[in-house]
Amino acid sequence: MSARALRGRRVLITSGPTREPLDPVRYLSNASSGAMGFALAAAARRAGARVTVVSGPTALPSPRGVAVVPVETARQMRRETLKRSRAAALVVGAAAVCDWRAARPARVKLKRGPGALRLTLLPNRDIIKDAASRRRPGQVFVGFALETGRAEARARAKLARKGLDLVVANGPGNLGSSRARVALVFRRGAALRVEGPKTRVARAIVSEAARLLDEQRA
């Protein structure tokens, strides 16, 4: 990938997990560290882009030269992403967003009792799908599909359903790891498989996204 592949372009990335409160001290979340999202941000920055990351909670240091917007919940992430998505040439939904949130988080700590605790969960909106539905000409949208089986087939279905240009199919073993094994699924043609450190995988994703942007201009 050329060091100027994204020169002057705005790139927006969602990263990390979200946290959905159950009470003041407990929440629903997942094992995402945010490493892939930050690796993508660093790769895009090296390619000359102006990069903003909307990030859920992470212990990682922010990439140099990248603007980070911290959020906690999926609804916060959606709001901050949609504020910025139309201004970006490339939008990458790399966050591991919780699909569900508590209908009514408790205002006080839930106490243990002898019976079962019943929770009512509501679905969160699909952030990358909502952003792609507002696309303007020339934009490229990249999503991630974390699956436990038939990852490529399900990623291809998500590609069409969400109106994306590229979907990165991966598995739960990538969460919290410094390495990743993914398949890049495009609208046309065979999937591209990439494996290695997340920094290497991120460069491959950004390179393919930059190529798709150039094709939009042609």
Describe this structure in words.
This protein is of the alpha/beta class. The chain starts with 9 loop residues before the first strand and ends with a helix. The protein has helices at residues 35-46, 74-84, 127-132, 151-162, 198-217; strands at residues 10-15, 20-21, 27-28, 50-55, 67-70, 90-93, 100-102, 121-123, 140-146, 166-170, 179-186, 192-197. The protein has one domain: 3-Layer(aba) Sandwich (Rossmann fold), CATH 3.40.50.10300. The model has no long low-confidence stretch (mean pLDDT 93). It contains 5 helices and 12 strands. 28% of the residues lie in helices and 26% in strands. The radius of gyration is 18 Å and the shape is globular.
Weakly predicted, low-confidence segments: none
Helix content: 25-40%
Distance between the termini: 18 Å
Strand order of the largest sheet: 5-4-1-6-9-10-11-12
| H and E string | EEEHEEHEEEHEHEEEH
Largest sheet: number of strands, sense, barrel closure: 8 strands, mixed
Work out the radius of gyration.
Answer: 18 Å
Give the CATH H-level superfamily.
Answer: CoaB-like
Please, how many domains?
Answer: 1
Main structural class: alpha/beta
Report the β-strand fraction as a percent range.
Answer: 25-35%
The count of β-strands is: 12
CATH architecture verdict: 3-Layer(aba) Sandwich
* CATH structural class: Alpha Beta
